[in-house]
Design a protein that fits this description.
This protein is an alpha/beta fold. It has 16 helices and 21 strands.
Length: 498
């Protein structure tokens, strides 16, 4: 039997998952990496640590099941999007840590550009509003603030990529001819690519003063790009690249316009397939590339991005020490009947969709002497459900499609309390598939399709099956009261940063 490997380079860790033809997991290797916080609002990763971890998890996944490289027909890559790294192509070393998608150091730059040019100019070209979120301004910050980078970039020696590009370059030879490329989904998250023409936009590059020579070649999401030269998987074709949320859309087999999924991970990301039409958002969503299979047109999606979801549970564990393990949050939250009037807006790096308020910061509202840690735990879980409701309402307005159910995936979907509350707040069915590792699966699907391991989209759809469905069970007046409290808390979080 042959298999497909998937490298899932996420915000908190890196995994290699090996799948069989039915889309079942055969083996997993995983390792967390350090989260670096040099200043308030700054978030970084060590790209060298991530590269070494990638090699380790590939080896670990193979060793656990004694899998020969010859049994692996292709490898896909999915990655945390918008996390930017610039490195020297002669030495292979990064000039600076990777600047993570959650980082807000470029907020003044974004605000100045909004005054000078306006967010609509950028949105029309890229589908994205001006925000600290995307890669382009992070690259500009590195060029402007790290010695020697701009001079090397002008010479064509300093090159840029999201984490997919960094890993592909290293896996295919690095300083000895490594491929410098990305796919359309990752390119669409830089705010440097024109979303209609699928090429780097010269006007944006000129405005941000970013040399074009730094940028990777843009390729489809499913295509044989080249072969891995590292001995951990030598000779295996790299044949699929998708940003993590687009990968989850493919893993959930949302190939028809109107089909939507929500991934509950570090952040929370809802995508709706809009087919071959890029629908401009009038309600605070992003227009983004969903995927492109070789020889086929680009498919687009509307996306609602929430910065802090599972990360809030980690914050409760690591920063406050209220829980020792993330799984304990559900037990603690079940110890109380409701949130006790407490609302937690986790705007640690501003508010993302549909508000796009860089000046917002986190607040806990509605505290009284009655409140205990159980209420705080419950408000932490409920924050994810409220943010998802904000996004879904915007998505229905933009698309004109009323959602009858929501397909969900990601680590937080094991939390039964959250999933039931999510169904109650949305007043629709919430469906969890048997395979919740849809991000890694989507990258595997893209790679497998490129080499003929799977022959058609029908093969992929046939693999999808339901594990559990939650139905709404809350009265409308109670739902409205909960959501009204959330909206009040949102207003309290806005405008905190001058």
């Amino acid at each position: 039997m042959n298999y497909v490997a998937s490298i899932d380079q996420g915000t908190t860790g890196t995994r290699c998952i090996i799948f069989d033809k039915k889309g079942n997991i055969v083996s997993v290797g995983q390792k967390e990496h350090e989260q670096i916080y040099p200043k308030p609002g700054w978030v970084e990763h060590n790209p060298e640590e991530i590269w070494q971890n990638t090699l380790e998890v590939i080896a670990s996944a193979r060793i656990k099941k004694s899998l020969s490289v010859k049994k692996i027909v292709a490898c896909g890559i999915t990655n945390q999007r918008e996390t930017a790294v610039v490195w020297n192509k002669r030495t292979g070393k990064a000039y600076y840590n990777a600047i993570v998608w959650q980082d807000t150091r470029v907020d003044k730059m974004a605000n100045q550009l909004e005054k000078d040019t306006g967010t609509e100019w950028f949105r029309e070209k890229t589908g994205l509003p001006l925000a600290t979120y995307f890669s382009g301004l992070k690259v500009k910050w590195i060029l402007d603030n790290v010695d020697g980078v701009r001079a090397d970039a002008e010479k064509g020696e300093a090159i840029f990529g999201n984490m997919d590009t960094f890993l592909v370059w290293h896996l295919t030879g690095g300083i000895d001819g490594g491929l410098h490329l990305t796919d359309v989904t990752n390119a669409s998250r830089t705010q440097l690519m024109n979303i209609k023409s699928m090429v780097w936009d010269d006007e944006i590059l000129e405005k941000l003063d970013i040399p074009k020579a730094m940028l990777p070649t843009i390729e489809p999401s499913s295509k044989v790009y080249g072969k891995i030269t590292s001995e951990v998987m030598e000779g295996v074709p790299i044949a699929g690249i998708l940003g993590d949320q687009q990968a989850a859309l493919v893993g959930q087999t949302c190939f028809q316009p109107g089909e939507a999924k929500n991934t509950y991970g570090t952040g929370c990301f809802m995508l709706m397939n809009t087919g071959t039409e890029a629908i401009p958002s009038k309600h605070g969503l992003l227009t983004t590339v969903a995927y492109q299979f070789e020889g086929q047109p680009v498919h687009y999606a509307l996306e609602g991005s929430v910065a802090i979801a599972g990360a809030l549970v980690q914050w409760l564990r690591d920063n406050l020490g209220i829980i020792k393990d993330s799984s304990e949050v559900q037990t603690l939250a079940r110890g109380v009947e409701d949130n006790g009037g407490v609302y937690f807006v986790p705007a640690f790096s501003g508010l993302y969709a549909p508000y796009w308020e860089n000046s917002a910061r986190g607040v806990i509202a509605g505290l009284t002497r009655y409140v205990n840690k159980g209420h705080i735990a419950r408000s932490v879980l409920e924050a994810t459900a409220y943010q998802t409701k904000d996004v879904l309402e915007a998505m229905e307005k933009d698309s004109g499609i009323e959602t009858s159910c929501l397909r969900v995936d990601g680590g937080m979907t094991v939390n039964e309390l959250l999933m039931q509350f999510q169904s109650d707040m949305l007043d629709v069915s919430v469906i969890r598939p048997k395979m919740i590792e849809t991000t890694a699966l989507g990258a595997a699907y893209a790679a497998g399709m490129a080499v003929g391991y799977w022959e058609s989209f029908d093969d992929l759809v046939a693999n999808w099956s339901v594990d559990k469905t939650w139905e709404p069970n809350m009265e409308e007046d109670k739902r409205s009261k909960h959501y009204h409290g959330w909206k009040k808390a949102i207003e309290r979080s806005k405008g905190w940063e001058d």
